[in-house]
Design a protein that fits this description.
The chain has 298 residues and is an alpha/beta fold. It has helices at 18-28, 54-65, 90-94, 99-105, 110-121, 127-136, 145-152, 160-169, 182-192, 220-234, 251-256, 267-272, 284-288; strands spanning 2-8, 35-38, 42-48, 71-76, 85-88, 173-181, 196-200, 202-205, 208-213, 241-245, 259-263, 275-277. InterPro entries: HAD-like_SerB, HAD-like_sf, HAD_sf, PSP.
Length: 298
Amino acid sequence: MTLVATLIANEARPAITDAVLAEARLVLATEHQPRILHGEVAAEVLLPGAPAAAAALTERLRTALGGEPIDVAVLPADAHRRKRLFLADMDSTMIEQECIDELADTIGLKQQVSEITERAMRGEIAFEPALRERVALLRDVSAGVVDALIRDRLTLTPGGRTLVHTMSAHGARTCLVSGGFTLFTGPIAEALGFDEHHANRLGLAGGRLTGLVDDPIVGREAKRATLIALRDGLGLAPTETLAVGDGANDLDMLGEAGLGVAFRAKPAVAAAAKVRIEHGDLSALLYLQGYMASEFVA
């Protein structure tokens, strides 16, 4: 069996030097020469080994590189390395904010709501009741503020658009699946180029929020179910799927995916995911699949 170790830095802080690659080859006990994916930003190297050894090798390499600003992952180098289905969380993953917190800020309740959001994302409280509690606080907020929030406050996470467009160009189905709200996922999915989106629907009356959210809630179980439904509908093997997220409500989806990536995630999520990205931007998910920067679709 063959494994592949991928090393990824942030383009703003290149760190994959010859010395780093030499150290990686030594730690991994491989004679294979590195394949450079993008300058000093990303590279990979093949090594012999069984899939069961990948997690331990990842930790060994991460420890050896110490404080270097480099993400590492050792994964099987199999025929399904380039995924054909991609699911992504939205808040704090494909965008850099939490939409519900920004909505709360319009009525001066951001701190109160964000504290609940943070606890839910860390897995300290159940997602569904936490969502209903926060939405109730938004009663009577004008739905008209959403367009302004998207325009003025929300920012796309670097690398996200390139990630989605590149995977789409190579035949993958892409889906934005969020515990947030369709008022946001619709425009964000369009801006990023996703094929489809799934999220919660806020109750509306007379152009204002009712403080209620429609059933069923899109939470932890629903995200996993969406992945399974899309995977089965496309006739794909589990290994052909990729998912990314940052919060506790993403854990089931990440665990179900052939490759589940925790992106700048809460500690419990980072610890549970197959791969974690802490330094690179979202283009890291392309390097993990073996794409070279020259193959990216902007």
